[in-house]
């Protein structure tokens, strides 16, 4: 079991690095909603104190009204900070569990960055979003929402794109929050995976962050994304904790 203080540190950094457009607290539950993007991280209830397990039915009902107003499915993001009372309630109600993710970290003093290409991050959010939509194969309708989220990041954010010729082949966002460097939206075009482009863009982002004073890198990756997990572990990233999502079964 990870130290809860460490989990809280990464959870707080994640909220700052990937900000939702609407945030409301109900006790120590953080309700995050974003009209422009359907991503689960941006549209979920995030419990932050294992001891906060009172009035669960009423609080879920209040949150459900918020989610309905945004047209989002009611979703909990369950980290080690979710308490046993809440978990037992969701189990009794037979809420579905899905999309387990791993939070990983790497001390940048241990990162092998000698010989890694120096890359200057993009300044133009529009150009980066165009590249990200292409690499992720996302619908053009996602452009405004993704642009809004990136533009709302308060810590320093480096926008990285690897190209083959003029074509973007891999992307990453590195958010430096004091001594932490968080990696987000790391992706490689599916047909070009396994050729080193993802490794290249991640290492360039880590080198940039270390030059700016970051001491530790961290990221979140879906547990069933075996190629990505293998890549990160080969770079020296180690598991810190896991989280998953829960939704009520369709009636």
From TrEMBL:
Highest taxon in the source lineage: Bacteria
InterPro entries per the UniProt record, alphabetical: Acyl_CoA_acyltransferase, Bact_Acetyltransf, GNAT_dom
Residue span(s) of domain N-acetyltransferase: 120-251
Keywords for the protein's UniProt record, in alphabetical order: Acyltransferase, Transferase
GO molecular function: acyltransferase activity, transferring groups other than amino-acyl groups
Keyword Cytoplasm among UniProt keywords: no
PANTHER family: AMINOALKYLPHOSPHONATE N-ACETYLTRANSFERASE-RELATED-RELATED
Official protein name in the record: GNAT family N-acetyltransferase
Lineage, highest ranks first: Bacteria, Pseudomonadati, Pseudomonadota, Alphaproteobacteria, Hyphomicrobiales
């Amino acid at each position: 079991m990870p130290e809860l203080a460490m989990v809280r540190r990464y959870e707080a950094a994640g909220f700052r690095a990937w900000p939702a457009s609407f945030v409301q607290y109900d006790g120590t539950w953080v309700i995050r909603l974003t009209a422009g993007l359907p991503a689960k991280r941006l549209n979920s209830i995030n419990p932050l104190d294992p001891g906060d397990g009172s009035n669960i039915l009423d609080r879920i009902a209040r949150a459900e009204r918020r989610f309905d107003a945004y047209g989002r499915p009611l979703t909990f993001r369950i980290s080690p900070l979710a308490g046993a009372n809440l978990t037992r309630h969701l189990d009794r109600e037979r809420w579905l569990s899905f999309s387990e993710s791993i939070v990983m970290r790497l001390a940048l003093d241990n990162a092998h960055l000698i010989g890694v290409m120096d890359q200057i991050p993009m300044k133009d959010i529009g150009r980066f979003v165009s590249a990200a939509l292409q690499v992720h194969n996302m619908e053009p309708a996602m452009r405004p929402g993704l642009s809004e989220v990136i533009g709302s990041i308060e810590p320093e954010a480096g926008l990285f794109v690897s190209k083959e010729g003029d074509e973007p082949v891999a992307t990453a966002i590195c958010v430096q929050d004091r001594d932490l460097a968080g990696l987000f939206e790391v992706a490689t075009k599916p047909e070009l995976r396994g050729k080193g482009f993802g490794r290249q863009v991640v290492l360039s982002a880590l080198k940039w962050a270390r030059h700016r004073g970051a001491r530790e890198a961290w990221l979140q990756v879906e547990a069933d994304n075996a190629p990505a997990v293998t890549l990160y572990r080969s770079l020296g990233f180690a598991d810190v904790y896991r989280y998953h999502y829960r939704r009520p079964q369709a009636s």
